[in-house]
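Field log, afternoon session.

UNIT: design team B
ACTIVITY: writing a sequence onto a fixed backbone
BACKBONE:
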């Protein structure tokens, strides 16, 4: 069983437990459920293109940074030009939780991506209830039908969809209702990074779809290379979060790249 399989198995149990604690109606009655969401698609084309991530840990790296405040970090991300914020909500493997979104939602005015392993309709109502604007669909753990159904549900809830792919086979998961396509530079099964592989996949997407390079962007050279190859967005977390002061690192990065 690879790490993705382990995560999905744990996620199914987590969702089952959550349904017994918080009903669908309670999610619909929450503070943020009726709010008008921000568009990441629009924000990517009007700002830096960077979706700056708040991430405490990962299965491959262990603890990255668990000593900083989400609000302090993401508010600075916004201040210095981030197009959007990505926040991990998986607890067991990434050290995230819903409070990381709930505690910052009223303090920033850019889109928030709930980054998690979305495999059940219940999670989309959760995402809406905690103030997310965008959800992530990972092709590697979903069928084509699930992607279509979850995309439709997301749009009914006012959420945008970022579809993540890593292989040529996963290009089949794309449909015309998808808002953005993320191409993961890091293989979810063995964690190897290959930027050229991502470029090759991008070139097989429709020309009018916005593409986001995800993970494995380790320096300014990687960013510039992917930008030159036509990527519209860049989801970056570890590069900033591994520093004692992620917000300062983001500020320095923005001042060093050509936006």
């Amino acid at each position: 069983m690879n790490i993705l399989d382990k995560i999905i198995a744990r996620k199914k149990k987590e969702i089952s437990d959550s349904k017994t604690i918080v009903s669908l109606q309670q999610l619909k009655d929450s503070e943020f459920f009726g709010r008008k969401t921000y568009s990441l698609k629009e924000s990517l084309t009007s700002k830096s293109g960077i979706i700056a991530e708040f991430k405490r840990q990962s299965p491959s790296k262990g603890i990255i940074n668990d000593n900083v405040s989400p609000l302090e970090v993401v508010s600075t991300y916004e201040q210095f030009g981030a197009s959007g914020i990505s926040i991990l909500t998986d607890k067991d493997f990434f050290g995230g939780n819903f409070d990381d979104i709930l505690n910052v939602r009223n303090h920033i005015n850019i889109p928030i991506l709930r980054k998690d392993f979305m495999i059940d309709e219940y999670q989309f109502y959760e995402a809406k209830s905690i103030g997310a604007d965008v959800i992530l669909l990972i092709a590697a753990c979903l069928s084509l039908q699930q992607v279509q159904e979850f995309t439709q549900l997301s749009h009914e809830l006012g959420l945008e969809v970022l579809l993540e792919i890593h292989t040529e086979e996963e290009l089949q998961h794309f449909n015309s209702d998808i808002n953005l396509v993320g191409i993961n530079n890091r293989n979810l099964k063995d964690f190897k990074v290959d930027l050229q592989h991502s470029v090759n996949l991008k070139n097989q997407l429709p020309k009018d779809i916005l593409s986001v390079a995800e993970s494995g962007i380790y320096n300014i050279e990687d960013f510039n290379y992917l930008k030159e190859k036509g990527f519209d967005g860049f989801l970056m977390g570890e590069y900033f979060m591994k520093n004692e002061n992620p917000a300062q690192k983001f500020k320095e990065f923005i001042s060093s790249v050509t936006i």
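LOG NOTE: The mean pLDDT is 94.
NEXT ACTIVITY: expression trials, pending approval
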